Amino acid sequence: MIAAVLLVVLLGALAYFAAPVLVWTVGVAAWLAALQFVFHCPVPVAAWAVFAVVAAALNIVPLRRAVFTGPVFGVFKKITPAMSQTEQEAINAGTVWWDRDLFSGKPDYNRLLSFPDPKLTPEEQAFIDGPTEQLCGMIDDWKITHELKDLPPEVWQFIKDHGFLGMIVKKKYGGLEFSNYAHAKVVTKIATRGGTAAVTVMVPNSLGPGELLQHYGTEAQKDYYLPRLAKGVEVPCFALTSPYAGSDAGAIPDYGVVCRGSYTHPRTGERFENVLGVRVSWEKRWITLAPVATILGLAFKMYDPEHLLGDKEDIGITCALVPTEHEGVEIGRRHFPGGSAFMNGPTWGKDVFIPLDWIIGGREYAGQGWRMLVECLSVGRCISLPAMSVACGKLTTYTTGAFARIRDQFGLPIGKFEGVDEAMARIGGFTYQMEASQDLALTALDNGEKPSVLSAILKYHNTERMRKTLNDAMDVHGGKTVVLGPRNYLARGYQAVPIGITVEGANILTRSMIIYGQGAIRCHPFVLREMKSAMANDGAEFDKAITGHINFVISNFVRSLWLGLTCARFASSPKGGATAAYYKRVTRLSSAFALLSDMAMFSLGGSLKFREKLSARLGDMLSGLYIATASLKRFEREGAPKEDIAVMSWAVENALYDVQVAMDGFLANLPSRPLAWVLRRVIFPWGLTLKPASDRVGTKVARAMMEPGATRDRLTHGMYVPKSEADPVGVLEHALHAILATEPVEQKLRKLARDGKFKTITARERLAEALQTGLINQEEFDAVTRARKLKRDVIMVDDFDKKLDQHDEQLLQRLIF
């Protein structure tokens, strides 16, 4: 009996810690020897012989390859799905980082906590406090979106003059050369004031000519264009999306044929004859800044049927820079994305001849466009739309928290009704998650990583949380944000939500195909090695990868069972106190995720890439683990403040609950029902034990949003807050403090009214009567009068003359007739 228990403990420990094959061999040999010589239980010679044969087959590499991994290698090569060149380039783009730890089943929290904290340099902070603050003060979003349908000329000029379009451009070219963290914080601050200005600043610094030039441009291209981009002399746009290729960007129909031709340079007027170049035809849509761009980044498929460049006819996707005044370039019309007025429009051209040296990077980068784009996109998707989402979270937290405390019904601030505080908790909790997730990814970027999987997680989950926070904020504000006008600080963002959901990889596609589809191959410790060895027909490398992979699966199976049975109580945690249990839960779910991932690939093989619902749930698991650990990292980075325990707990508990929901859905729909039954008993032996954050925690989050304090300040740090009482956002803080300061007097007045002490009827009359009868003093009268005025300013909505303005009359005529 003791020997049997020792065997179970030994095998469990070897599996739990993923011991190498040789250690397994030594361990089992030691147990057999102990069985015979310590416990005096004779081991038959046949048993020793079987053990010796198995040990030799597993430890002698040529023998292992001959009897085991070799045959498996042959099968693997047949069942491994072929990858297109665009798929290979997408998978190879970027790097893996903390996401690899989450895929491992054993996250290294000391590594997580040792990542450097993102910080602004004095120069970056001065830019945010100076020009960025000034720019925000110049923005009148109602005027921009309703009247001008564009930024005012003085705002355009300010953006250009102060280098907002060149934040990523290196200083040697005249740019600001800001960190990715600073870039994101500038966009966030502007976006809390107006989406049109934020997008205008964001796009040239994200996926566009500037980013591509710095990484791949020739020296001549850099020397000419980068200083002009940095100073706003050039306004860039990048044209990738076509009417027929949106999410499937690799299928763009736009093409260029290598040939000889002639052209006149649009800038110098110089004529060039018999030049080797490309004759390009394109039709692009939804291109931001296209209507005002002076330089067009253009992606097209390049062909060389006459072999003027070499033996290859299909060169591949290529990126070029074309001055918009070049002959044949059609540009200038615009789209009108819902609720926003940033410049966005189509561009097209037919048989437009461009020289080869207009290709970004020159002739040698012909056909490298897709790789260039996906590598840059992994950076841009970590910054632009996630920053806009964080800005939305900050704005909704700030405004909704204040409004819910100022606005009352039935004698109570509306934020104290449980139905409202439930919505407010989501706003605060999602805001915490969004900024934590982006800040951790920005740490990776500023340390030289290009986390393509994390960028997809951020793009999807931050924009979805943006949608949810705006929905909740609109509900809490009620009629305040239903009526459009200068006082409405949420409706334009609400209208514009579909833009963020759609662009830079539509969210449905990102969730169902990209996050896990790319993550499973890039982040898994062995899958990419196995695939590469199969493509290279490298049996020796496959042997190493597959044996490691088998050990990995066994380890995660045992770990998941143990952590499930014990609810991870004995797992290690780098911290004590409020976060200790959360680290342990992440370990448990990470191990379970790794096991489910392998079982999905094992049972479904190459068909998994077409099982988008299952792939989406696996992506949700990885995303939830990332969001939870990012939230834990943020809590520690900010000094583990006790005031933030509630919002941190809400963020982590709901992220981990989302992981459990995804696992439950995955197991309920896994085609192999016997396998699903076994996995459910291993991972959830006691059932689904994780719960979302409690109502009590949610109420604490909501109350923190409604009261001036450290938690509210941290959630809204970095947003633009106007100081004027005349501003619809600026008045909130004045009103909030005035309401809180006069609450005792208001309570006193309500009690006097209940006791029948007043002869007058209205609140204004009773306030004056209280002053005249000495029930309150002049100071209290003045304070209450001011507080009530500010409260009215907060509650009131805009009204207009019943006659429509000329623009709206024309629009109405078109709709009617």
Automatic annotation (TrEMBL):
Residues 367-514 form the Acyl-CoA dehydrogenase/oxidase C-terminal domain. Keywords: FAD, Flavoprotein, Membrane, Oxidoreductase, Transmembrane, Transmembrane helix. The chain crosses the membrane at residues 33-58. The keyword Transmembrane helix applies. Its EC number is 1.3.8.7, 1.3.8.8. Pathway: Lipid metabolism; fatty acid beta-oxidation. Its cofactor is FAD. Residues 141-232 form the Acyl-CoA dehydrogenase/oxidase N-terminal domain. The keyword Transport does not apply. Residues 521-800 form the Acyl-CoA dehydrogenase C-terminal bacterial-type domain. It catalyses: a long-chain 2,3-saturated fatty acyl-CoA + oxidized [electron-transfer flavoprotein] + H(+) = a long-chain (2E)-enoyl-CoA + reduced [electron-transfer flavoprotein]; a medium-chain 2,3-saturated fatty acyl-CoA + oxidized [electron-transfer flavoprotein] + H(+) = a medium-chain (2E)-enoyl-CoA + reduced [electron-transfer flavoprotein]. InterPro entries: Acyl-CoA_dehydrogenase, Acyl-CoA_Oxase/DH_mid-dom_sf, AcylCo_DH-like_C, AcylCo_DH/oxidase_C, AcylCoA_DH/ox_N, AcylCoA_DH/ox_N_sf, AcylCoA_DH/oxidase_NM_dom_sf, FadE_C. Belongs to the acyl-CoA dehydrogenase family. This is Acyl-coenzyme A dehydrogenase.
